[in-house]
Amino acid sequence: IFEAECLVDNVDGDIASEPLQFGCLKSSPFQRPNCEALDRLLSEVEAFSDPTSKEQSELDSIYHKSAAIVNKLSKPACIFLLKNWLLSLAMCDVGILIALTPIDQTNATTTTTTGVALKTLQLQGAVTPGMIECNGNKWIYSVKIIDCGNKSAITLRKRARKEQDIEKL
């Protein structure tokens, strides 16, 4: 990741400032190149991110193995990793809007209750709202992605730096 950050800093406004074009994605939209070193690196990253607690020596070992593997990556593998890193930056800055309205305005309760199960009656479609039921009341809902316009990597890096400054307060 450090090398990717350096690349973005060095390019500063050229390739790194080109906006990313993408939709909502669950996995990488980029074709994964055939590279044995990339496969090993991703395996090491998985081991590193495993939530089970590890000794510092084990973490250091995984880090050093990963750093050595990075030097063996092919150019397409590096590009693949950089594209995914830039995409992950962009996905950090997506806003959603959730709208709820009761179907029967007169009988809908406005109190909130913790732990109440929602029953999905109809999933939201591309142009139609969804419907849920809660405490016997039916609600129409709509979830929209907003503020997902194209943002350059430089813009997102500046936002991340500002957030880090706020976290220090």
Automatic annotation (TrEMBL):
Protein name: Inositol-pentakisphosphate 2-kinase
